[in-house]
Amino acid sequence: QVQLVESGGGLVQAGGSLRLSCAASGRSFGPYAIGWFRQAPGKEREFVAAISGIGGITYYSDSVKGRFTISRDNAKSTVYLQMNSLKPEDTAVYYCAAGPRSAALQRGTGDYWGQGTQVTVSS
Prior knowledge:
Number of helices: 1
Structural class: mainly beta
Number of strands: 11
Shape: globular
Largest sheet: 7 strands, mixed
Helix content: under 10%
Distance between the termini: 40 Å
């Protein structure tokens, strides 16, 4: 089992920055691909970014490309999502997930999920 806990959410003004963390415990974190997802009220959960377990290859949705950066520190069993130039449409609950394949994460399939952290961007 892998337990994931997100943190770092909060209220920021448009144009501001925020860094989310996803801390893992339990089974070894290194082999897993990690993805970030978000869900706004009344909308379906959407893929945001992912990083592969091998090679650190990153993937981003078009809506966040150039603004968000995903990274990982396997020694700390933590994945980060650095969010810059935040927009009101980025407001959502952000979730991290772990799985064996980054391609599966991009499709919304993960073996383990965190509880989410709220990000609110004011105009």
